[in-house]
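To: structure subgroup
Subject: Chain for Friday's discussion

All,

I'm putting the inputs and outputs inline so they're searchable in the archive.
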Amino acid sequence: MTRELDVIIFGATGFTGKYTVLHAVKLLADLKWGIAGRSQQKLESVLKEIGKKADTDLSKIPIIIADVGDELSLEKMARQAKIVVNCCGPYRFYGEAVIKACIKESTHHVDVSGEPQFMERMQLEYNELARENEVYIVSACGFDSIPADLGTVFFEKTFDGQVNAIESFMWFKYIGPGTPEKGAALHYGTWESAVYGLAHANELRGLRSKLFKERLPVIGPVMRERSPYTSYPVGGKNTYCLPFPGADRSVVMRSQRLMFEEEKKAPVQIRNYFTVKSFLEVLVLFITAGLFALLTRFAFGRQLLLTYPKLFSFGAASHEGPPEQKMNNTQFIFLFKGNGWNERSSDYKVRPNGEPVKKHVTKVTGINPGYGATCVALLLSATTILNESSQMPGKGGVLPPGYAFGKTNLIENLCKNGFTFEVMEADNAGDSDAKKSL
């Protein structure tokens, strides 16, 4: 089927959608692309706004009218492109209809969902149909799952031997001049997804019992979760590390499971943490998390959280989102510390000889974690499907990014567009001990 466009950015008038359009000016320059949403007037306004910001005439960019509540409009949109870049969340409410339309019209689909229930239910219900229609459906293509999942892939690629376990540590650093502009760190859409995600977290057990029939084997010594504990992942500084509450571990473990089941690769144990500088911050986070978890259990509590995001997030989330000056001068760092064996076992289900004493450290960094890096990773994920589908597993499916893109050039392309993937010198490597980078 001949397609008019290579890429359509759906939900282009939203916060993430606008930034995706901005980055599309550069990253999709050699492709035919358009934008889609419910309102012709708002879509035209986005093209004018982003065109002015990028100093580029976007008036000829095609506009497609499509609404998640109108199945036929979604199918018509999907028929016009090779891939839909879906920026319309929360995906638990708005994602499935777009995926169904894309699969029906044999159109690839990427999004930035960080909602495990949505992603795993889509895999359970649509994976076989996506394979039959030779369509790739890949969620979690933004920050923070791209650095986490592709960072794990990079760790294994650069480890000379067999990996047993990896711990990743995430933190942020302001690198701009002066002090950061005051404002939230999260947009309301991210907050809304978190509210509903935690409210429906109990769905995961039932989903996983259907999706994953057997437990992944643990080949080496079991790595236990540590919470909270003091370590030295930040260049020797005393740092408190807490289990990361987002989707990272679920996304990475889905990749590990598929590599185990489809590629006969021994699974790696994964633990994901974020870091804070003081015990006072640990206490504040525990109190905030406890209140958040309590309120999400009740409809009235959820309404409070959604009505007053700035109040209940202590200023971290707002409808306005983070200010550009703050976003563009904030660096994210993922440090990966792991161990394994010098030799690989000939049987992927059998532990190699000896103890996993070989150590390895890698790091992934980038700028503007929430929305700049997210939009770059999202668009590069889309172009990877268009340009390198022959390097991707099978001919389609509902896949996590690490498994989908592990054998492509996505890491290299990310490194050409603001990311770094580095192998570090020592076990306690921090901000400046790079040995090798892509």
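Points worth raising on Friday:
The chain has 16 helices and 17 strands.
Confidence is low (pLDDT under 50) at residues 426-434.

D.
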